[in-house]
Design brief:
- The chain has 256 residues and is α/β, with parallel strands linked by helices.
- Helix content is 41%, strand content 14%.
- The protein has one domain: NAD(P)-binding Rossmann-like Domain (Rossmann fold).
- It has a seven-stranded parallel sheet, sandwiched between helices.
- Strand 2, helix 2 and strand 3 form a beta-alpha-beta unit.
- The structure holds nicotinamide-adenine-dinucleotide.
Length: 256
C-alpha cells in the first residue's frame, strides 16, 4: 500500500522533531517519502532521529539544533535547512513546553517561555518561509495546538493562552496565506502519551485521564502524526483555517 499518494514532493520542517508528536509527525511524513528537517533544542536527539528516519525510509533527513524561543536563532536554522534540503513546502510547529504552577506559578520567565516557544516562532517562521511556500505548489503549515485552547484547567494558564492564541493566529494567517494558495491549520491533541505528559500520568491516580475520554484510553503520538501528514498532503487541499481535534472524544465528553 502506497501512502505517498497526493503528498507533495517537498521537504517539511518539523519543530520539536526530536520527541513525541513532532517525531511521530516527521516519521509519518518520511513514510510518505517526504524529506524532513527536525528542529529541536535537543540537537543530538534530533540528529539521531533524523539518521534513523533516513535509514528506515531512504528520505533526506537532518537534525537542526535550535532554541525556538530565541528569535535571533531562527535565521541560522533556516539557512542550514535550505542548504541541506532542496525545496521546503511544509512546516509543522510542534515544539512545546508546559507550565504546571497554576496562577501562583506565573513569572515573567514562565510567560516568555510559553509564548515565545508556542506562538512567536510560528508567525516568524511562516513569514520567513513564505517565498519557499509560494515557489512550491501544495505547501501547507500545521500548528500543534491543544484541547487546552478550549478547556479551562487552572494548572497551565500560560500554555492555555499560547494554544488559544495559536488557534486565533492561524485563522488570521490562513487569510493571508490563502492569497498565495498556501494552507494553514491546527491540530489539537488531547492526552497523548509522550515525555511531556508522562509526569502527569505518573502523578495522577491511574485512570484519571481515561475516565472522561469517550474512547477510554489516551492517544499515541502516531495517531496525531497521521493527521498532520494528511493536512500537509493534497488530500486536504480544501482545508484551511481549521482545527482538527485528535482527542478520542475528550472535549465532547460529559462522562463523570
Ligand atoms: N502530549 C500531549 O498530551 C499533548 C497534548 C496537546 C498538545 N500537545 C502539544 O504537542 C506538542 C509536542 O509535545 P509532546 O507531547 O510531543 O512533547 P515532547 O516533550 O515529547 O516534545 C516536545 C519537543 O519540543 C522540544 N522543545 C521544547 N522547547 C523547545 C525550544 N525552545 N526550541 C526547540 N525545541 C524545543 C523538546 O526538546 C522536545 O523534543 C507541544 O506543542 C505540546 O504542547 C501535547
Amino acid at each position: 500500500m502506497s501512502i505517498a499518494l497526493n503528498s507533495p514532493n517537498t521537504a517539511v520542517i518539523v519543530t520539536g522533531g526530536a520527541s513525541g508528536i513532532g517525531l511521530a509527525s516527521a516519521r509519518a511524513l518520511a513514510q510518505a517519502g517526504r524529506a524532513v528537517a527536525l528542529w529541536d533544542i535537543n540537537g543530538d536527539k534530533a540528529s539521531a532521529a533524523a539518521a534513523a528516519l533516513k535509514a528506515e525510509f531512504g528520505v533526506e533527513a537532518i537534525g537542526v539544533c535550535v532554541d525556538l524561543s530565541n528569535a535571533d536563532a531562527l535565521a541560522g536554522a533556516l539557512q542550514t535547512t535550505r542548504a541541506a534540503l532542496a525545496r521546503i513546502g511544509g512546516l509543522v510547529h510542534a515544539a512545546g513546553v508546559v507550565d504546571t504552577g497554576s496562577l501562583e506559578g506565573v513569572t515573567l520567565a514562565v510567560w516568555e517561555a510559553g509564548i515565545n516557544t508556542h506562538l512567536r516562532p510560528l508567525i516568524l517562521l511562516v513569514q520567513a518561509l513564505l517565498p519557499d511556500f509560494k515557489a512550491n505548489p501544495g505547501s501547507a503549515v500545521v500548528g500543534i495546538a491543544s484541547i487546552n485552547a478550549t478547556l479551562g484547567n487552572h494548572v497551565n494558564p500560560v500554555y492555555s493562552a499560547a494554544k488559544g492564541g495559536m488557534l486565533a493566529m492561524v485563522r488570521s494567517l490562513a487569510d493571508r496565506l490563502g492569497m498565495d494558495g498556501v494552507r494553514i491549520n491546527c491540530v489539537s491533541p488531547g492526552q497523548i502519551v509522550t515525555p511531556m505528559l508522562q509526569p502527569a500520568i505518573d502523578y495522577l491516580p491511574k485512570g484519571t485521564f481515561e475516565k472522561r475520554i469517550l474512547l477510554g484510553r489516551m492517544g499515541q503520538p502516531e495517531e496525531v502524526g497521521r493527521v498532520v501528514r494528511f493536512l500537509l498532503s493534497d488530500e486536504a487541499s480544501y482545508i484551511t483555517a481549521s482545527e482538527i481535534v485528535v482527542d478520542g472524544g475528550n472535549i465532547s465528553s460529559q462522562r463523570m
